[in-house]
Amino acid sequence: MVIAEIVVVPLGTGTSISKYVAQCHQVLDQWGLKYQLTPMSTIVEGPLDEIMEVVKKMHEVPFENGAHRVSTSIRIDDRRDKKITMEGKVSAVEEKKIK
Amino acid sequence: MVIAEIVVVPLGTGTSISKYVAQCHQVLDQWGLKYQLTPMSTIVEGPLDEIMEVVKKMHEVPFENGAHRVSTSIRIDDRRDKKITMEGKVSAVEEKKIK
Amino acid sequence: MVIAEIVVVPLGTGTSISKYVAQCHQVLDQWGLKYQLTPMSTIVEGPLDEIMEVVKKMHEVPFENGAHRVSTSIRIDDRRDKKITMEGKVSAVEEKKIK
Amino acid sequence: MVIAEIVVVPLGTGTSISKYVAQCHQVLDQWGLKYQLTPMSTIVEGPLDEIMEVVKKMHEVPFENGAHRVSTSIRIDDRRDKKITMEGKVSAVEEKKIK
Questions:
Q1: pLDDT of C71 over the 70 cut
Q2: Exposed/middle/buried for A64, CB within 10 Å: 0-12, 13-18, 19+?
Q3: What pairs with residue B2 in β-bridges?
Q4: Strands across the sheet containing D69-79
Q5: Consecutive H or E run containing A8
Q6: Rounded to a whole number, what is the distance in Å from the CA of B86 to chain A's nearest CA?
């Protein structure tokens, strides 16, 4: 299980991209991967192979809607000495702030 | 006002970095910039000049705690045809998902 | 054919990571994908499916050498209104500087 | 002295962005910072304070040419146990490949 941040940006389609992000989330909903929307990205949690497959589908979304160029970024956090989760990573920071 | 994603990663200090993230947030608290922690980054909202200054201070945090190498990333989203906020960006996507 | 930038960073293994990058390039050499080393990343050119497969193999390199946490980033530039190459992208900028 | 990778991407201005990159390089030429163009980014070498100032100027380039939204990314590699240079980072990898 890894945590990955995904950003799909169409170029040349206008200043707003929220429409494409919403459609990318439909892909994630159909796939069933756990995800979280942030103001700058979508963060997913799951097996790396599945995430790589779903990213390829998300990357196609703007092309299917008329874009001619898409910039897609993925940043994978893979830790194997202990299990990581989206909630666990946030609470690990929050706990250290309280102390 | 821009929205920016910040990631500060010390190299060679161990597998856990939450301690450094918590200290970076103390810098943000002292500065008074609005921010949000996600499982993969810290997102801030404010004037670009201030964000660039605070990133320089956050970048020093791991060095002050013994790190010898730090990789810091900033991704700035600056839109000038309309005001953007962290909440507004998320709700723009959520609205399109409901429809 | 897309162009993609790949960065594989092990956490907690020391300040130098060039050893891991060199081994990641062995993976690329075996695969036969065209690539270019820069001071900040490795850039590859090829079919998206192949690139995603080879990134998964590159991501395993630090784990096979003792790392317990790896942060891997991929940024894909996919343009479908015209063919892009690594050389073509650089010369498109250089030409505009001469004029 | 740090090494930083800079990517300035205007949204909604068309599929080609090489024109903006060329103008960003004019900013770098005027400033006098050492830089290198790659197929996916511009890499600079210099003092962190100067780089942060020049990035702010590069970020303005697309706005000055009609863009209404710009996404600018900076990734800083700062190592303080030894001096790093753009050439040195590349050759450290190449040497390990020969062995």
A1: yes
A2: exposed
A3: B46
A4: B34-37, B42-46, B2-10, B69-79, D69-79, D2-11, D42-46, D34-37
A5: strand A2-10
A6: 5
Per-window interface: B 5-64 vs C, CB < 8 A: 9, 11-15, 17
Contacts of B19 (CB under 8 A, 6+ apart): A96, B65
CB contact A74 to D (< 8 Å): no
Residue A99's pLDDT band (cuts 50, 70, 90): low
Report CB contact under 8 Å: B48, D63.
no
The secondary element (H helix, E strand) that includes residue C73 is strand C69-79
Distance from CA of A47 to the nearest CA of D (A): 27
> For residue A24, how many other CB atoms are within 10 A of its CB?
27
DSSP B68-91: SEEEEEEEEEEE-SS---HHHHHH
Q: Angle formed by the axes of helices D86-98 and C18-31, to 10°?
A: 60
What tens digit of pLDDT does each residue of D39-82 get? 999 999 999 999 999 999 999 999 999 999 999 999 999 999 99
Show residues of chain A in contact with D72, CB under 8 Å: none
Q: How far is CA A61 from the centre of its chain?
A: 14
CB contact under 8 A, B18 and A93: yes
Neighbours of chain C (3+ CB pairs under 8 A): A, B, D
Residues of C in contact with D39 (CB under 8 A): 3, 36, 43, 45, 86-87, 89-90
Q: How many whole angstroms separate alpha carbon A80 and alpha carbon C49?
A: 26
Q: What number is the ipTM of this complex?
A: 0.96
D69 and chain A in contact, CB less than 8 A: yes
CA distances from D25 to C96, D9, D90 (A): 10, 14, 22
CA D89 – CA A66 distance, rounded (Å): 40
Count Cβ atoms below 10 Å from residue B34 Cβ, excluding itself: 13
For chain D, domains (ranges, CATH) are: 2-98 (3.30.70.930)
Q: Do B94 and A37 touch (CB under 8 A)?
A: yes
Instruction: Answer yes or no: pTM beyond 0.90.
Output: yes
